[in-house]
């Protein structure tokens, strides 16, 4: 890829925005009020703003390998805390995607060096749901189900956070689990039941 092309693209993009609204960047530079915190995979085929059809300023975004939210990960926790406590987003979305290379790698018995501790998060999801997953004979379907279960468990991790529980209770902020299907381009809402997950996690994760 010719990187000079990226700068030309950027200049064209700036011009397109200014043609529509001369104050576009002036207005954007003042403040951000995103309503959504989107947490997704770093995969280059899953560009959040494109698949959601949102513009600059509408989504606060965290991407990492396999959209995991370990409660000990300072980056994830900082992004979530800032989005919930300061930006006051109304929705947190965890978006996985079918054919996620990291999810596939996690279920293979391969030593991936420095990636091992990160992929442990997905291997833990497998361990939690191994009865259901091992009962799926078709490998592709098993792998797709692990993508969904990983989204579900990352939603559970998000719901363990005290600030998230507080925002859910006090101002109706919600948590959503989605999967992006790379084959069709469609987003699928897993329709996770936040109320019942909250009830379950608050047996242990109760902060007041
Ligand atoms: Co991925």
How far apart the termini lie comes to 53 Å
Question: What do we call the CATH topology?
Answer: Beta-carbonic Anhydrase, Chain A
Low-confidence stretches: none
State the CATH architecture: 3-Layer(aba) Sandwich
Number of strands: 5
Tell me the number of structural domains.
1
- Which ligands are bound? cobalt (II) ion
| Helix and strand composition category | alpha/beta
CATH class descriptor name: Alpha Beta
- Let me know the average pLDDT: 95
Q: What is the radius of gyration? A: 19 Å
Shape: globular
Give the topology string: H per helix, E per strand: HHEHEHEHHHHHEEH
Q: How is the main sheet built? A: 5 strands, mixed
Portion in strands: 5-15%
Helix content: 40-55%
Word description of this protein:
By secondary structure, the chain is an alpha/beta fold. Helix content is 51%, strand content 15%. It is built from ten helices and five strands, in the order H-H-E-H-E-H-E-H-H-H-H-H-E-E-H. It has helices at 3-20, 24-30, 48-52, 74-86, 101-106, 116-128, 130-134, 139-159, 162-171, 194-201, and strands at 36-41, 59-64, 91-97, 174-181, 186-189. Bound molecules: cobalt (II) ion (CO). Cobalt (II) ion binds next to helix 5.
Protein topology:
Blueprint: H1 3-20, H2 24-30, E1 36-41, H3 48-52, E2 59-64, H4 74-86, E3 91-97, H5 101-106, H6 116-128, H7 130-134, H8 139-159, H9 162-171, E4 174-181, E5 186-189, H10 194-201
Parallel strand pairs: 1-2, 1-3, 3-4
Antiparallel strand pairs: 4-5
Bound molecules: cobalt (II) ion.
Cobalt (II) ion (CO) is lined by residues 41, 43, 66, 97, 100-102.
């Amino acid at each position: 890829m010719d990187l000079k092309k990226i700068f030309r693209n950027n200049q064209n993009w700036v011009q397109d925005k200014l043609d529509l609204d001369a104050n576009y960047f002036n207005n954007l530079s003042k403040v951000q009020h995103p309503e959504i915190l989107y947490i997704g995979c770093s995969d280059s085929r899953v560009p959040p703003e494109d698949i959601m059809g949102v513009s600059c300023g509408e989504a606060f975004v965290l991407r990492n390998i396999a959209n995991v939210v370990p409660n000990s990960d300072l980056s994830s926790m900082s992004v979530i805390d800032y989005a919930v406590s300061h930006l006051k987003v109304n929705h947190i979305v965890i978006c996985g995607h079918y054919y996620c290379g990291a999810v596939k790698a996690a279920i293979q018995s391969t030593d991936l060096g420095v990636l091992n501790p990160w992929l442990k998060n997905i291997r833990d999801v497998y361990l939690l749901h191994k009865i259901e997953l091992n009962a799926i004979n078709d490998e592709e379907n098993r792998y797709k189900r692990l993508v969904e279960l990983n989204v579900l468990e990352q939603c559970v991790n998000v719901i363990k956070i005290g600030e998230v529980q507080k925002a859910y209770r006090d101002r109706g902020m919600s948590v959503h689990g989605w999967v992006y299907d790379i084959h069709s381009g469609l987003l699928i809402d897993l329709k996770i039941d936040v109320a019942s997950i909250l009830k379950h996690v608050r047996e242990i994760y109760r902060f007041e």
